[in-house]
Specification:
It is a single chain. The protein is elongated. The longest helix is centred in the last third of the chain and has 14 residues. It is of the alpha+beta class and 77 residues long. It has a domain of 50 residues: Ubiquitin-like (UB roll), CATH 3.10.20. Bound molecules: zinc ion.
Length: 77
């Protein structure tokens, strides 16, 4: 259970209370390629359409970004 994060009750963009926690696929374009990340939890404002991503969103997003990162780019010091 995700209990240690406060969910938004109001849109940070338009102050509408019509904000809801949703789990939806997110698509974005990276290096000209479309990457779809399934089941990203985030909050969505049904008034202005703005989406807000929290730490649990990035827990899902980050492994995908790692996977799609061009080759190994680990810093060698
Ligand atoms: Zn809004």
């Amino acid at each position: 259970m995700l209990t240690n994060r406060k969910h938004l009750t109001q849109c940070l963009s338009c102050d509408s209370p019509k904000i809801k926690y949703v789990i939806e696929d997110r698509a974005y374009i990276k290096d000209g390629k479309k990457i779809v990340i399934p089941k990203v939890p985030h909050e969505k404002c049904f008034s202005c359409g703005e989406r807000f991503f929290g730490p649990e969103s990035y827990e899902v997003i980050e492994p995908y970004q790692e996977k799609h990162r061009c080759k190994k780019r680990k810093a060698v010091i």
